[in-house]
Every structure is written in C-alpha cells, then in structure tokens.
Amino acid sequence: MKILPFYRHGVLSDSKSMAWLACQLEQTKRFGGSNNKDYEWRDDVVDSGLNLAEDVRNAITGNGVDVLLVGHSQGGLVCRVAAVALAGKHVGTCGQFTKRIIQWQCRNGVPKEGSMKLGVVTIATPNAGVLTFGQMSVAAELLGRGIMEVASLLGATRDLQDLTTPRLFQEFENWYVDAKYLSISGVCVNRYNRGWVRDLAELWPIKRVSVRFDVPNDLLVEDSSTDLRQSLIRPEVDLINSYRHVRVYPESTSLNHWGVRRSGEVVKVIAANLDWLFAKGDSVRPSAG
Predict the structure, then answer these.
(1) Where are the domains of the chain?
(2) What topology does CATH give the domain 3-126+171-187+221-277?
(3) Tens digits of residue pLDDT in 115-141
(4) Which end of the chain is less congested by CB atoms within 10 angstroms, N or C?
(5) Which residue has the higher pLDDT, 158 or 6?
(6) For the whole model, what pTM was predicted?
(7) What does the alpha-carbon distance between residue 102 and residue 50 come to, in Å, rounded to a whole number?
(8) CA distance 87 to 106
(9) What is the pLDDT of residue 162?
(10) What is the DSSP letter of 109?
C-alpha cells in the first residue's frame, strides 16, 4: 500500500523549501501522491496544525491508509498538532489549545477506527522550544527576545511566542497519540563558537551581558530540543515503543538549520524507518476524550 505524505515548511519559508525532499522521497516508490502546501507561518501553530488535520481528513477515502506527516522546523510542530487532532486521546487537563483541538474533533469528526495508520517525522524541530527555554538561561532569553523582535517586524508574534515559551508544549501533556514519531536533527556542535559568530560574541553589547552560547545547535535550534526524550515536559507519544531520534552529520560545521531539509542523509533516514513507522498492528484509534 502506498504511503500518503503531507509536508509542512518552517518559518520564513514556503512549500518550495520542502519540494526537494518530497521529490527525493517519492523516488523510493513507497509514496502515492504528495501534499506539500504553503501555510501562513505567522499564524499560531495550533491553527496551522488543525488546517493540516483537515487536509488529511479530506484526503482519506478508504480504509487502512498509511499517512506520513513530515515537517521541518516549526512545520514539525504543525504536524504534531495535526497528529493530536487526528489520533489524540485526551488524558489530561483542558488548556486553551486543548479546548480548540477538542472543538475541532467534535465539529469535524475524526477518522474512523482502522481507516488510517499515522506516522510523524520532525526535522530540526524545536520540540522543546527554540533553543530550549530554561536550558540556556540568559543566552536563551536574549536570543528568544531577538527572534521575537525580528518576527514582530515581519508581522509574526503569535507563532514565535508558541516556540519560545512553554505554553504550547505543556498542552501536549494533555494528550496521548497512538502513532510512531521519528525526529531528526542535523548537528551536535556549537555553531555559535565558530567563525564570524564567535567574533560577533566579542562585540561590546553582547560581551557586556556575558552572553555565551555553549550548547550544540544548528544556528537556531538547540540540538537537545529536537529530541523529545530530553524534553522537560512529557510529550504526547510513547517514548519507549513509538519514538526514535536520529542525528545526521554529527560533526558537521557546515550543515545548518535550513540546509538539513535538503540533506541526502535525511532522505535515507526517513526511507530506512518507513517500515518501523508503519509496522503492522492496530491502526490509530482517535478519541476526543
């Protein structure tokens, strides 16, 4: 059976940025069609995720469909929200975002039992927040503020607040999703300790507040943030039986946050894990809880 893929890009980007990856994966002959759409990355992540869930629901025409959600950067969070809406069982409290997801499930319905099996791939996705809030102390706070300032100039504030504060990630605690998740990160070196970035850190305004970037990162997302097993907040997926994390190019200093989406190694990792993502067993059983 062919896999039905859905691709979502990250911030400051569009669907063209995912076209190469989609094309390469289609050459594996495992995929049937391709849904690679633009979305308004300035909107909040929950709105974008629910729109993706709607696209998936409308695309399912039979039973036993294998659906793969692939997201780069913020697009990975969009895919996680869609997975919750399509296959999530509410198991916790009912926060602002959770209420909206439950309302979507009640209004639109969810795929019937056995109608699909769901897999999620996140690539360089800040699964615990951009540069992991709370894990880089002053550096994370200042960089987060800088990102927000730039974003506000571009008309984006809601989505970046979702990525630089715990509020979205705490909502995932309220759900359990019966699906396989594969997260992929690019590098595990400190990109802020090399070349011009290191020189930038010596400038008076930055040096004055003693900002140091001492953790592995890809210029935007801290490496540990991509791995759900290192999240300080419990995610919606079973980390023991239904989750894998793979790091490509661990020693690379040239592959950054945006280059990883055009990496041949990423294509190989996804292709090698397709059988695991859609292993035989019970199909997802969505529930509004």
Answers:
(1) 3-126+171-187+221-277
(2) Rossmann fold (3.40.50)
(3) 789 999 999 898 876 544 333 333 444
(4) N
(5) 6
(6) 0.81
(7) 11
(8) 13
(9) 60
(10) -
